[in-house]
Design goal:
Layout (H helix, E strand, L loop, with lengths): L1 H26 L8 H4 L15 E10 L2 E10 L1
Antiparallel strand pairs: 1-2
C-alpha cells in the first residue's frame, strides 16, 4: 500500500513538471507561428546561378522574421 502512495506522489510531481514546462513555453511564445515552418520549403526562392565571365554572382544572407534567407545578387563589372 505504501508503494501505491509513492507512485501517486511521483506521478503528481511529474505532472506538475510538465505543466510548468507547458506554461513556460506558452509565455515565451514557442507556439506563436505554427503554419510557416510546415510550408517554408514550398516557398523557398533561393536560386543559384553559374558564374559567368560577364556577371559575378555573390550569395547574401538576410534575416527576416527570425529565418535566414539566402539570395543571389548579381554585380556587373
Amino acid at each position: 500500500m505504501s508503494a501505491f502512495f509513492i507512485m501517486i506522489g511521483a506521478s503528481l510531481l511529474i505532472a506538475v513538471g510538465f505543466l510548468i514546462a507547458f506554461i513556460w513555453s506558452v509565455r515565451t511564445n514557442q507556439y506563436e507561428d505554427d503554419y510557416t515552418p510546415s510550408v517554408r520549403m514550398l516557398f523557398d526562392n533561393t536560386t543559384i546561378q553559374k558564374k559567368d565571365k560577364e556577371t559575378k554572382t555573390e550569395p547574401t544572407k538576410t534575416k527576416q522574421n527570425g529565418t535566414t534567407k539566402i539570395s543571389v545578387r548579381q554585380q556587373n563589372g
